[in-house]
């Protein structure tokens, strides 16, 4: 199988064998040109001759149509994930026509009907979603730390910071530290607030910035970077067109 995750910043793929083991995977910046990037990867994909391609995309209809065109040339059946608010593994109170399928798949990949879970996605956007015994209650969306820094940079005259590290939430005494620490606190503070409001929900984090954020959270956090892939596998296990 070939699994594709078309995100806002990066394209990720996983090639798996018959027993679901990952034989190849990568993540590449697509610079808003995912079809060109895909085109460059088709040789690699063809070499593995997957029998199906399952796709998570948050790129919207226009880019998805281009992706479909590109993949059609491979002569391998493929399908995009459609969010299903009444999926047998998890129901959702969220407007299914709007819910990003990456968010939904991360939840589907984690959901456990015996638990209360809080899924925190740390990608281009930071998302926090609450699941109570396999019912998605809803959630929150934040710009990630880099988007926040860009918006401060572009919306102010005296803040000219465009680099530096996010490593502390202690108050800063210069602009560089105040910006980085303030931004990190906005995310960590939100996670801690959710954690306080929902003490019985297990905190699960995924995505590139998960470790950086988790370090400052005042309760144990489980880091799981397999959630989206696991969600894709669970989804297509239920709904894969019979071929
Ligand atoms: N090699 C890398 N390239 C880009 N970002 C990375 C890399 N390693 C870690 N990161 C961190 O991962 C974060 C992005 O997380 P993630 O990979 O989950 O999302 P993304 O793929 O960039 O976003 P999206 O899924 O929306 O395309 C970045 O903010 C960055 O700090
Ligand atoms: C929130 C992001 C950007 C996270 O990648 C994505 O899931 C998305 O574009 N979602 C659409 C909006 C929503 O989920 O309500
Ligand atoms: K947008």
TrEMBL record:
GO terms for cellular component: cytoplasm. Its EC number is 2.7.1.33. SUPFAM superfamilies: Actin-like ATPase domain (SSF53067). GO terms for molecular function: ATP binding; pantothenate kinase activity. InterPro entries: ATPase_NBD (IPR043129), Type_III_PanK (IPR004619). Pathway: Cofactor biosynthesis; coenzyme A biosynthesis; CoA from (R)-pantothenate: step 1/5. Gene3D superfamilies: 3.30.420.40. A monovalent cation. Ammonium or potassium. It is found in: Cytoplasm. The active site is at residue 102. ATP binds at residues 5-12, 124. Its cofactor is K(+); NH4(+). Catalyzes the phosphorylation of pantothenate (Pan), the first step in CoA biosynthesis. PANTHER family: TYPE III PANTOTHENATE KINASE. Homodimer. NCBIfam families: baf, PRK13322.1-3. Belongs to the type III pantothenate kinase family. This is Type III pantothenate kinase.
